[in-house]
Write a structure and sequence with these properties.
The complex is a heterodimer of chains A (300) and B (400). With 300 residues, chain A is an alpha/beta fold. In chain A, 50% of the residues lie in helices and 13% in strands. Helix content of chain B is 45%, strand content 12%. Classes of the chains: A alpha/beta (300), B alpha/beta (400).
Chain lengths: 300, 400
């Protein structure tokens, strides 16, 4: 049932996918739409790199919505192990099962008892296995650069043929390979072997018009004038050579912060008070305060 | 020859030849477009309109490139091969920070110079001992040749840190999976608890090597030291050179043979024996690599004499930033090995407050000492603690 829904909604070309994404509130540019389209039809993972806050994670959510597939997210961190990413056995229940079996009839067939222990119902599926079992799905492997290289190795194994073999149970294979989105903030170089299996896309900050459109779309209550001013000021902040240039996410935070304060326009005073929504380093805040006594956030 | 392919034909064969030719051009431009990637580009193109230049552009860019560094080269190669402009949306990276150069077609400055034959080494043992303590700037060609051999024997050990990954152990927290698996073997009776504990992992070491004019007598030795470090721990060592710009040479230094590795990195460095703008370059390093993760929790070793042409305030500011990110900051100054040396240059004065270990780096013995400092370096925080406890100076390493 799920299958034919997804087949029928598979967009015909990048433009169609772009339009469908726009309908969900995610506004991709041509390159990103092509990348997502190819990932979908070629069954190749999409490797997204770019500054923090340019919308890498949001794309996976939007794609799940467009394709009507469930989204499984795996947040990476150092020391991430197979038992957190693939599957784990529910040891507590296994022991209980064993005790219960013992209590029921003291001497059962040991082999049968053991086979009963490694039943699917004692298996805890983690995101990678869930994504394969619930196919077709969208799998988001977030911030893969945070995981260590040991993890990369077995991620590679899963992504190359979309199967997971569980020694006690057998092999789980996805009927339709999941749409995989990997994101990285480039805190370290991800291994070439992994990148080679993926489509690589570098996400840029959106241009002015697109950013205004995104703000208007995501925050419908914000006035057009405020959205334009926030987009312009954010673009200027990006040109200031800051420690952490603000991304789209920060621009959205800022606009909604301003809106929450009841501002209909960006004036120097409210801008200064809400700067914490866009700038996340004290040095950056000091710098902007010193540089722009009103010049940046003035009128129009 | 590019003109022949300009009109991408309708037949599959034409597409294949065009793509293969383009991949060749791209490889010349320095993008590693491997056959597997080219195959992926063909598959991608099959899903798109091959007569639309924009579609071809994206099909290639998404499959053939692997890092942001590839993108500019890809654009140039695309424009050269298909004619016209790459249909790429503006890159709005904004800040015109010094670009990191990985390969530049400049001639080798050093490393390829041919020394004379090694002299007769009859008195090798005692000779080696003397050589180990000699300032590398004052060596003859033959002596330098001999020292290179000794450098190859240097194996800097990596500092370790606890990782989040665990391995079986006698002590530590209980490993449920193994405990239960064992219990199941024993008929469901937990007879013994299995433990596991954090496994140590090598801590990242980042070497920033000054290759400007004033450091040129030491650049060869420093790069050899860097090569030894990269060879010992390829995955956790990063090497950058700087003068007026920053160059990552880690890849070049991974070549096994020291002379080939040095020649390769020599040709990758565009600013040999030029001036130094340490502050600016350090900022480029931190913006592009350091803050993202390369410097986080790492032992960062800056090898420079501190002759700063730019402003000392910028250097002080960036060193403080580096110090906040890194586990420990080591500064290697070859001049420190000279008797009567005082860190008086503006750059050194600006940098020292953010340096945990200030060491010499002028002779092989000093490099051995440096390897020891890197291996056993306590973090800035624990160092601060010990400094408070005992009035010991912060500088480590000898003045021989």
């Amino acid at each position: 049932m799920l299958l034919d829904v997804s087949q029928s909604t598979l967009p015909a070309d990048p433009v169609a996918l772009g339009t469908a994404l726009e309908a969900t509130g995610y506004l991709p540019d041509e390159g990103l739409a092509t990348a997502a389209y190819l990932a979908l039809v070629m069954h190749r993972p999409l490797f997204l790199e770019g500054e923090a806050g340019v919308g890498k994670t949001a794309l996976a959510r939007a794609l799940a919505e467009v394709t009507g597939r469930p989204l499984y997210r795996l947040q990476c961190y150092e020391g991430l192990e197979a038992s957190h990413a693939l599957y784990d056995w529910d040891f507590g229940r296994q022991l209980l099962h064993l005790r219960a079996a013992e209590a029921a009839h003291a001497a059962g067939d040991p082999a049968e008892l053991e086979a009963g222990l490694y039943d699917r119902r004692f298996l805890l599926a983690r995101p990678l296995l869930q994504a394969l079992e619930d196919s077709p799905s969208v799998l988001l492997v977030d911030e893969v650069d945070r995981a260590d290289d040991e993890f990369e190795a077995f991620l590679l194994e899963v992504l190359s043929d979309f199967t997971i073999s569980i020694p006690e149970l057998g092999t789980v294979r996805a009927e339709t390979p999941p749409l995989v989105v990997l994101t990285s903030n480039r805190t370290r170089e991800v291994h070439d072997a992994l990148k080679r299996r993926c489509l690589y896309h570098w996400l840029e900050h959106p241009d002015f018009e697109r950013e205004v459109a995104i703000l208007r779309r995501r925050l419908p209550d914000v006035t057009d004038a405020l959205a334009r001013q926030v987009a312009r000021a954010t673009a200027e902040l990006r040109g200031l050579d800051l420690l952490k240039p603000p991304g789209v996410a920060e621009a959205m935070d800022w606009a909604s912060a301003l809106h929450a304060l009841g501002a209909r326009e960006l004036d120097p005073d409210t801008a200064a008070r809400t700067l914490g929504a866009v700038l996340k380093y004290r040095e950056d805040t000091d710098r902007v305060h010193a540089l722009t006594r009103g010049a940046l956030f003035g009128g129009g | 020859m590019a003109a022949d392919h300009r009109t991408a034909g309708n037949g599959t064969r034409d597409v294949v030849t065009t793509v293969l030719g383009f991949a060749r051009t791209l490889r010349h431009a320095g993008v590693a477009a491997s056959p597997a990637r080219v195959e992926a580009m063909l598959a991608a193109a099959a899903h798109l309109d091959v007569l639309d230049p924009t579609a071809v552009y994206w099909a290639g860019r998404l499959t053939l490139c692997g890092s942001p560094d590839d993108l500019d080269r890809y654009d140039a190669a695309f424009a050269a091969y298909f004619g016209g402009e790459a249909p790429r949306p503006r890159r709005s990276t904004g800040a015109e920070q010094p670009r990191v150069v990985r390969t530049a077609p400049l001639g080798t400055g050093e490393g390829s110079e041919d020394g004379g034959e090694p002299s007769d080494l009859a008195t090798r043992a005692s000779g080696e001992e003397v050589l180990r303590h000699r300032d590398v700037a004052e060596l003859t060609v033959a002596e330098r040749e001999e020292l290179r051999r000794l450098f190859a024997l240097l194996v800097p050990a990596a500092p370790m840190r606890a990782s989040r990954r665990r391995s079986p152990s006698q002590h530590g927290s209980i490993h449920r999976a193994r405990t239960v698996r064992r219990a199941l073997r024993d008929g469901g009776e937990v007879t013994r608890l299995e433990h596991h504990r954090a496994r140590p992992r090598p801590r990242r070491v980042v070497l920033l090597i000054d290759v400007s004019g004033s450091m040129s007598p030491y650049a060869d030795a420093l790069l050899r030291f860097a090569h030894a470090a990269v060879r010992a721990r390829p995955a956790s060592t990063e090497v950058f050179t700087f003068g007026t710009r920053l160059t990552r040479v880690t890849r070049e230094l991974r070549l096994r043979d020291p002379d080939r590795a040095l020649a390769a990195s020599g040709s990758a460095i565009p600013d040999w024996s030029g001036g130094t703008r340490i502050g600016e370059v350090l900022k480029a390093f931190l913006d592009r690599w350091g803050q993202r993760g390369t410097a986080r929790g790492a032992v960062v070793v800056v090898c420079s004499d501190g002759w700063e042409r730019g402003g000392a305030e910028l250097l002080a500011e960036q060193m403080a930033r580096l110090h906040r990110l890194a586990h420990a900051v080591v500064w290697v100054n070859p001049h420190k090995g000279r008797s009567g040396y005082e860190p008086l240059t503006a750059g050194m004065v600006a940098a020292l407050p953010s340096v945990d270990h200030f060491v010499a780096g002028h002779s092989l013995a000093a490099f051995e000492q440096l390897a020891g400092v890197i291996e056993r370096t306590p973090g800035s925080s624990s160092l601060a603690r010990s400094r408070r406890a005992s009035p010991r100076g912060r500088t480590t390493g000898g003045t021989s």
